[in-house]
Amino acid sequence: MTRDIIDINDFTILVEEGSSDVPTVDSCLFDEPVIAVACYGAGNVDLSVKFGEKHKQFNHTKGLALSFYADDQVEFVHTVSAAKPLACIVIATSVRNLDKLPAMEGELFGEMLHQLVHPKDHYVEGPSFFMSPEMQSIVDQVFHSKYEGKAKMMFFRSQMTSLLAHFFGQLSVMPEDSIPQDEREKLQLAKEILSKNLERPPSLSELSKEIGLNTFKLKKKFKELFGVPVFKYLQNERLTKAHDLIRNQNATIQEAAWQVGYDSLGSFSNAFSKKFGFRPSAIKG
Asked: In the chain, where does the domain assigned CATH 1.10.10.60 lie?
């Protein structure tokens, strides 16, 4: 497990990453009341939020952006395993620092996260949604960055500012929740099926039959819920998995491409470069 804590202006950035061959619990508490946005990358780690006798469970965290207020009585518990690694970025500011934020940021927190600025419990959950492709790309780049020292700090500062801007931007255009819970569960299932079958994914019609939604609803509601079309999500998953295979599991570029379903190395390299900003050969360099 790795946990980096970085102070940028009046924000504290917490970057957590880890995996384990056996289920492992990673617990975190804040020293003082904070308002925060947590953004989850690859891994789909389980999250439990405990406060007093209350308990909130999140079982589908992959790609989730979650805003919340929490004081020092709230415990955040991640259950990490080989199948569900942890990749989480938390952008937090203490309640006492709200008045010190630049005018634009302070206004956004007050207007769009009003229930967090004026909490009525130890833990208050604010708006949450699955990140747009732009937000997901920023999160991926943070976890795949090679920068060190001062360059890393400059990179983090720019990425966190951009991530927060995208969060408020996406929040401002969110439609009213129009997806029934039973459909949400079916769409979550579709997402899991795609993630487990990167090499040979089902067709849209096959996926539609498997989850029990017609093809039109699958395409429309999937993009509405996750912010990206079905097969764009599949491509992002393939490339993220390939990056992990090359970087952490010593796979060759060709092996990684084949394992995630690419027959053409040229197509794989071009797609990889477009997503991460560098070719897969740069990882091996």
From this structure: 181-284
Start and end residues for every CATH 2.60.120.10 domain found in the chain = 2-172
Inter-residue long-range contacts of 260-266, CB under 8 Å, 24+ positions, other chains counted: 260/198, 260/199, 261/198, 261/199, 261/200, 261/201, 262/238
pLDDT of residue 210: 94
Domain 181-284 has CATH 1.10.150.110: no
Is 240:141 a contact under the CB 8 Å cutoff?
no
Q: Is 35 left (phi over 0), alpha (psi -120 to 50) or beta?
A: beta
CATH topology of domain 2-172: Jelly Rolls (2.60.120)
**pLDDT at 255 (0 to 100):** 92
pLDDT grade, residue 175 (50/70/90)? low
Question: What number is the average pLDDT over the span 61-65?
Answer: 89
φ, ψ at 22 (rounded to 5°):
-120, 150
